[in-house]
Structures are given as C-alpha cells and as structure tokens.
Amino acid sequence: MKYFYSLLAIFLGLQMNAAMVTFSVDMNEYSGVINTVEINGTFNNFCGTCNPMEETSPGSGVYEVTIDLPAGDIEYKFTVNATTDDEYYETLIEGAPCTVSAFGFTNRFLAIGADDIVLDTACFEACVACDDVLPSYQVVFRVDMSEYTGPSFGSVDVNGSFNGFCGGCAPMTDVGDNVYELAITLEQGTYEYIFTLDGFNTGQESFEDGDPCTSTIDVFVNRTIDVDSDETLAAVCWNSCFECGASSVVEFEKEAFNIFPNPSSGIVQLRSDASSIGDFEIINIYSISGQQVLSERMNADNNYIMDLSSLEKGVYTVELSTENRIAVQSLIIK
Q1: Which string of DSSP letters, residue by residue, matches 183-197?
Q2: In this predicted structure, what is the pLDDT of residue 12?
Q3: CB 328 within 8 A of CB 254
Q4: pLDDT at 291
Q5: What is the DSSP pairing of strand 72-80 with strand 37-41?
Q6: pLDDT at position 284 over 90
Q7: What is the rounded CA–CA span in Å between residue 222 and residue 214?
Q8: What are 4-19's pLDDT values in tens digits?
Q9: How far is CA 119 from CA 57, 61, 76, 89, 291, in A?
C-alpha cells in the first residue's frame, strides 16, 4: 500500500508541475504551399507529425495547439508539411529575442513553470506579430588580420549585440590574404560588434571612446553598424576603423578640424584654426559600417563647404588625408 501511495504522490507531483501551453503561429506571410502546420521541439524529440496545429478559423492563416508540458526549458520550431517530402522547418535569425543558438542550430526558446501559458501569436520565422516584422538583410562582415602581431589563434569570430556576444558561435572564414569573412542575416536596426579570437580566449579588439567607427554604451566601446540594406563591409584592419596599410605610415589626428553644423541636414562647412584645411588633399566620407560613400580632391584654404544632402540619415566619418596625415571627425546627417 505504501508503494501505491508513493507512486500516486509522484504522479500528482508531476501533474502539479505541468502546465498547459498554447502555441500560436501566423502563416499569412509564408509564400509556400501549406498542407499541415506542426510544432516540433525538444519536448517531442522533433518528431515531425506528433503535434499538429489547427487553423483557428477557416482562412485565418493562424494555427494553434495546446500541449501539456512539464516545468523546464524547451526549444522548438514551427514546421510545415511534415507528412510530405516538402517538410520545412522555419529559419530563425540567430540572436533574435525569442531564440537560443547551440551546435549550429537556432530554435525558439521557452521557460515553463507551474502556471499555464498562452503565447502571443508569432509570425512564422519571426519573434513578433507579422505586422511588426522588420525587413532582414544580409551583412558580410570582413576583417583583415595581416597586421595582427599578437598570440597565435585558431579562429576569428564576430561578436555583437545580434548574437549576445556569444564567444565562438560566429566563426569567420579565411578567404585569402588574411581576410576573414562571415555573412549574417540581420533585421533592420543598429548593432554593436567587435572581432575576437578563439571566442574571447585569445584576444579581442579594443577601441577608444570617440573612434569614428564606434559607439560607447555602458562604458563599452564597440564597432557600430546601421543595417538597412544588404551590404558587404570593407575589410577593416584588426583593431582599426580603417583598412590595413595606413596605420604604420600615417599620423592620425582627431581634432585637426571641425564640422559646422553638426548634426546637419546636408550643407556642411569644414573649418580649422590650428592648421589650414588646404594642407589636406583628399576628403573621404564613410558610413558607420566602413563603406566609402564619397571621395573627392580638396581645393580650399581654411574653409571647405560641401553639399551632403544626398546622403541618407545616419552617422558618418569624414576623413581628410595627405600622403602621411589623416584627420577624422564624426558627422551626423539628420
């Protein structure tokens, strides 16, 4: 009898620690053919068809299922057509707020307690409702390691706010000439990032507050990128905002000139009290991601006026250069 009651207590305890979880997905943005919609996860060993979802009403495109699940953490994905050869698992962006990434897989994540849960309807392949989904773009990150002189390393990685500065989860590929690349799909927005070695074990970049390709948030100085289109970034030198080759022969100056007004709607004036603007020969302007957006020869003395109204809103680096000098300032186009 004691054995029976022990089993009963265990069973009731398991029941008390279980929760009814309602999952809901909006398939209206999915362009493929939908025969069935399922949910697959660690709770059902990604079984395929064992947890089908039902459309809430004919033609709504919203599918739901309620499952009795024990307390604990689960990973899962919504799938389409698990009963056919056209089975498709949704693709989620690494670093998205509803996800977790491990061993090369990015899945949705949910912590289950003792209370029942009704999840908000999420758009297929997104963490938010379909009306709130931002466009996504492919960004190719590139770094040139040819001037790196530190300890030997096994991998070059990119770590940023888009992947939680995860360490070694985003290794880059050596594409030749010591240039490393990695393409990452990111939602529209602004992100911080740095390049690191062997996760963070061998080394990481270190910048000074005010360096032109960076932003400072909570005392941390990182590279910054505004993502609003597909982009292949310039192959910047390790621990530098510029391409390799310049740092060993050029004197960098941060306060050699001023820009008025700043922020600006387009018309700007470059002025210098300490030295003549005319001492410089070339002006280059770079986006915050390092892409050159303008280059021209200079022909002025202490004042130089430019019309930059064709540039999109954002943060730019204005670079004045001669054969052995480079001066930089940040400019905001509003």
Answers
A1: EEEEESEEEEEEEEE
A2: 44
A3: yes
A4: 76
A5: antiparallel
A6: no
A7: 5
A8: 444 444 444 444 468 9
A9: 18, 17, 13, 20, 41
Close Cβ partners of 119 (under 8 Å, ≥ 6 residues apart): 21, 22, 23, 24, 110
Q: What is the pTM of this model?
A: 0.60
pLDDT number for residue 96: 86
Alpha helices in the chain (DSSP H): 2-16
Q: What is the C-alpha separation between 27 and 63, in angstroms, rounded?
A: 8
Which amino acid makes up residue 310? S
What is the predicted pLDDT for the residue at 255?
Answer: 59
Is there a single domain that holds both residue 127 and residue 144? no
Residue for token pair 């009651």: 5
| Residues 229-268 as b or e (16 or more Cβ within 10 Å = b) | eebebbbbbbbbbbebeebeeeebeeebbebeeeebeeeb
Range of the domain at 302: 251-333
Please check whether residues 24 and 94 belong to one and the same domain. yes
| 49 belongs to a structural domain | yes
Per-residue pLDDT tens over the stretch 287-329: 877 778 888 887 666 678 889 989 988 888 888 877 667 778 8
Q: What is the pLDDT of residues 290-301, one digit of tens each?
A: 778 888 887 666
Give the CATH number, domain containing residue 89. Answer: 2.60.40.10
Q: Are the C-beta atoms of 71 and 24 separated by less than 8 Å?
A: no
The helix or strand, by DSSP H or E, that contains position 26, with its residue range, turns out to be: strand 18-26
